[in-house]
Every structure is written in structure tokens, then in C-alpha cells.
Records
---
Amino acid sequence: MTQLIDVIRNGVNTEQMYGTLDAIKADPSLGTFQFRAHNHWIDGAHNRSTIKAFYGAGQEDSTRESTFTVDAGEPAVLLGVDTGPNPAEHLLHALAACLTTSLVYVAAARKVRLTEVESTLEGDMDVRGALGLSDEVRNGFTNIRVNFKVKGDAPPEKLRELVERAQARSVVFDIVTNGVPVEVGLATA
Amino acid sequence: MTQLIDVIRNGVNTEQMYGTLDAIKADPSLGTFQFRAHNHWIDGAHNRSTIKAFYGAGQEDSTRESTFTVDAGEPAVLLGVDTGPNPAEHLLHALAACLTTSLVYVAAARKVRLTEVESTLEGDMDVRGALGLSDEVRNGFTNIRVNFKVKGDAPPEKLRELVERAQARSVVFDIVTNGVPVEVGLATA
């Protein structure tokens, strides 16, 4: 029982974690992943993504049992009827989720038990960019602030180090801060 | 009736759209928006964002009636139990949703009725970056491909022009392709 508790830290099976790391170290091609989303427009600002299949660890995944659906919308002031968070809010969620999971995994690897992780994110924008009213402001957020509240069985300096390490390893933090090339194709028939 | 059908195009109230554009043109300060998300860790790779309040058009929003919740997780191979799409998949959803809404709004403004908008997104990554196994690969996607299928009452060239305009105005496309500064703060007590 004590042994099982030691293996599972922060809800992460650390034995499985070390096994995964060793397997990818031994065969780096297992690190190649492709994630996917399929989106379809419903009406106005309402659209929906379905998410299931991905490629990773040398094969198409066959473990996911159900398809996730995520809806997007806009509030009234941006011409929608609140069918879901808007795309910019979904991006903030993706960033919060990635930093949080990175922090939880890093803490598990470094033998720190976390008891609480919360974060509040704010993104500022001038919608004149996206509405085509000004070429002097950008379309997207000019800046994003993330404020974490973290508790666990480690001193504040250690928790700070874990948050820094999470930033240094987060997939979405890298994408959002550094940008990624996006290719857009179109079929009309 | 005919008039109402002309006003509502692609589910977008174009009269309200022109009214919004005129109001922001007349008072550019109305273009200042701030979007927010609050996230809390549940267990392992499972965390949840709640999204409601935002600032825009000169005031704190008071129109949204309910709070949205969005869950994140990881599949088994990445040490989770599939409690939701993973953060990278959520980012693909945010990008798909934003490009789609931008396209729908641009089409409404340019008097094109759309009948179908679908998109498939793929993002490639080498997870050795995020797992801390290699400093030679980045943490995030190396590239993202978006493939749209669009139908409507306009010739293919016109639909292509609308998709290009949607890219040129999309909030999340801007963020993901160009990057945004992210500031991370931490409270430990």
C-alpha cells in the first residue's frame, strides 16, 4: 500500500512515467506525435470540434474510447449567442491546462506532492484589429498574464522552480510565446 | 420576412454587425477587450477551466448567463485517463473555431451565404522536447496544417478570397503564427 502511494504521485503513475521516458530514450522515433481536431460550422459564431484520433509512440492510438466534442461561440457584443467560450478564451484554457499538467508532471518527477494548483489567465486585445477597423493594432492578444496559486509539501522556492520548469517544458506555452507556422488549404467542391 | 432573411446572413445579424463596427469607429476605446479563464487542477492530467467574465465595449460584461467549463486530460500513452482533449488538441480547436468564425463573419459582410464549413487540423510534434529528453527539438508543434472544405453561393475564387481574409483577421491565427508575450506569476501562500 505504501509502495503504491509512492508510485502514484499527484495522480501520476511515476513508474509508468519512467518507463515511457526510458522507451523513448531507447527509440527516439517513439517521440513523434500528431494531434488532430475536426471542426464543423453549425450557425453564426457556433462551431464544434470533435477530437479523438492521434498518432504517437509509433502507431495510431487505439486506446481512446470516446470522441470529445468542444463547442465555441461568441457573446452578444461579438454577435454570437454564447454557445461556448470564444476561440480566444479556448486558447487561454489550452495554455492554462498545459502549464498545469506540465507542473503536475514535473512535481511528480521531482517527488513533490501538490495539494492545490489554480491559475487565472487574462489576455488583452483591441478588437479593431480582428474587425478590420485598424491596421495599426494586431488581431490577437497583445499580452497574456498567468497567475498561479500553488501549494504542496515543498518550500516556496522549490514550488517556484517547478513552475519555471513547467514553463520551460510546456507545449502550448512554447506555441503561444514563439509561434508556429500554419498552412491553410481549401477544397471548394 | 424577406428583409429579415437579408439581415440575418450565415446566422449573423448584419445590421447589428454594422452597428457594432460604427460604434467602435466612432469611439475606438470600445475596441479594448480582456478575456479570462480560471483553471483548477483536479488530479494527474485532469484540470478544468471555468470561463465567464470578460471586459469589452467599455464595460464588464453582464450578458453571459452561465459559466462555461472545459476539461483537459491526456491519453494513456501520455500518462492520463482521457478526462478531455489534451492541451495541444484544445489549441487546435481554438484555431479551428477562430478561423471558422472569422470566415463566417467575413462572408456575412460580403454577402456570401455559406452552406458548409468544415476543417481538419493536424499538428506535428516530437514529445522529446516537452518530456525534457532533448534540447534539440522544440516543445510545441513544429507545424500545423488546416484543411478547409467550404461551400456557399459564390464561385471557388471568391470562397478562396474569403478564407484568405479570415486568416488575415483571425485572432487565434495571429496568436499561433506570431506568438504573444506571456507573463507568469506565482503565489505560494
Note: Chain A touches chain B through 130 residues (CB under 8 Å).
---
Amino acid sequence: MKGNPITTSMIPSIFTLANLLFGFLALILVIEQQYTLAAAMIVLSVLMDSLDGKVARRLSVSSDFGKELDSLSDLVSFGVAPAILTYQAILYPQPDYVRYIGLGIAAVFALCGAVRLARFNMLNITTYFVGVPITFAGGFMALLMFFRNMLPWYIYLGSMLVLACLMVSRIKVAKLGK
Amino acid sequence: MKGNPITTSMIPSIFTLANLLFGFLALILVIEQQYTLAAAMIVLSVLMDSLDGKVARRLSVSSDFGKELDSLSDLVSFGVAPAILTYQAILYPQPDYVRYIGLGIAAVFALCGAVRLARFNMLNITTYFVGVPITFAGGFMALLMFFRNMLPWYIYLGSMLVLACLMVSRIKVAKLGK
């Protein structure tokens, strides 16, 4: 492993880093108030996240490094970015009390995402998920953003809270696309 | 391990989650253009990050879960938050070409931070660091923010680039405070 050159085993990590890059750009776009584009970046992250696993399995190069990098990227793209996007686009413009509760729930969403990732990595289970995957939770919040002219704010607040709880729950979720 | 209740082993994770929370708040404060406060949040994250390890060693409850959660929090607080803070506060107001290069280098800083964390976790070395720790890199960028009325923009751009390279370098760095 020492001094590892760029090899086949690095290829899935390129998709994982693309996942992180799109998550990073989503945050930049939130600052620029480009909320639809920010949500689109998170959707691109979901795509990259599904590709890295597929490519790793196809090339038979799943690695601990890749798994670690995947978790790290997932927290940014599907935990932090959707929480900040939802807070800023939907909850920040609401009355003060909604804004403060919204900030709290957005933080809880990101924290629960981190707990889920840390716990799932530790369990080392590969056949099913324990708790709703953060990719689903973050992707769902990004998709909701495309309907923000139709849906009231409490749908966003409620979804974040429910998804946060489901991420740290002990519910077994079947893995798709294996 | 199953159904783990809140036990002594959970105490260090409270500090780790506080680290992540301050990183999350730093991002929110960047959006609100409160750059000094955002930098202060990152400094608080550094403090929390140094406490979680100390507490875990004192209580002899170092765990894989804690290590995972620590890496996840570190990427947000010391990779993503300082990069976005530096880009937004210092580089965004510059001429177009600085802004675009700045965005690229900020993204590289965050990505190199993730690679460093994934690689270091995989190596499982506990006596020294390989590459400059992300906590140092992110903490340094946060401290620089307090001098932003005195320093030119290229100090920030250069520091981010150098620190990004040092994080993924193979330099052995002594661990302090063991």
C-alpha cells in the first residue's frame, strides 16, 4: 500500500471525490442564492455516489480507503449541504420562531447523518442498511427543493426531522441495485 | 455493541458532535456574512476536537465509532468550512480571475482534507501523523481570518494551496499533547 501510485483501485475514488466536489459546489451556490442549481448539484452527487460503488464492484477494487472517502463525501453532500440549503431557501425567510426551530432541526439532520455514517461503518454490514441511508435522506431533501413554489415550509421542516430520526433508527433497509 | 445505551463511551462523542455543530454554524455564519464569528466557530471546533481525544484517553473509551465520527466532523469543520469561509470573505470580492482560481483552490483544499482523513484512518498509525493534520490546516486558515484587514488576498490563496499539498504529503508530523 505504501506510496500507492494511481492504479485501477483509485478509479472509484474519482467518482467519490466528484460527489464531494458537487456537495461543496452546492454550498457555494446556496451562498449565491441559486437554490435550484444547488439542489441539482446534490442530485449529481447522488449519481456519483451510486457510480463509485458500482465501479468498485465491477473492477473488484473495493478498499478501506474508498469506504472512508465515501462516508466523508456523503456527510458533506447529503448531510450538511441539504440541511443548509433547506434552512436557507425555505426556513430562513419565515417568521423568527420558524427560523430558529429550522436552524436547530437542520443541525440535527446533519448530526444524525454523521452518527448514522459512523455507526454503519463500524457495523461492517454489507447486505442491508441499518437506518435510512444518508444518500436517500439528502437526495429526498434536494428533490423537494424543486417543488418549493408548491409546498409549504412545514413540509420541509417535517421531512428533515423525520429523515433525521430515520437515519439514526435501527430500521433495516434493503439495499437496491446490488 | 447492539442497542448501545448512553454510556461512558458516548461522552467523547458529545465533544465530537459539538465540533461538527460549530463547523455547521460556521457555514451558516458565512452565509450571513459574519466572517469573524464564523472563524471563531472554527476555533471552537479545534477546541472540541482536542477535548474529545483527551477525554477518550482519560476515560479509556477510544472506539471505532468515535474515530469515524471524529473524521466526519473534522472534514466539515476544518476542510469545508474554512475553504468556503476563505473563498467567500477574501477571494469572492476580488477580480474575476482571482475568484475563479480561488474557488478551485478552495475546492482542492476540501478534497485534499478528505483524502488525508481517509488515508490516515486506513493507515491506523497512532504515534505520529502522516501529512499535516486537517485540524491544523483548518485552524490556521480560521486564525488568518482575524487578520483580514492587514493581509493581502494572495496570502490566503497561497496558504490554502500550500496547506492542501501538505495535508496529502507523506511528511511525518509529531503528535503533540500525548
Note: Chain A has one domain: 8-174.
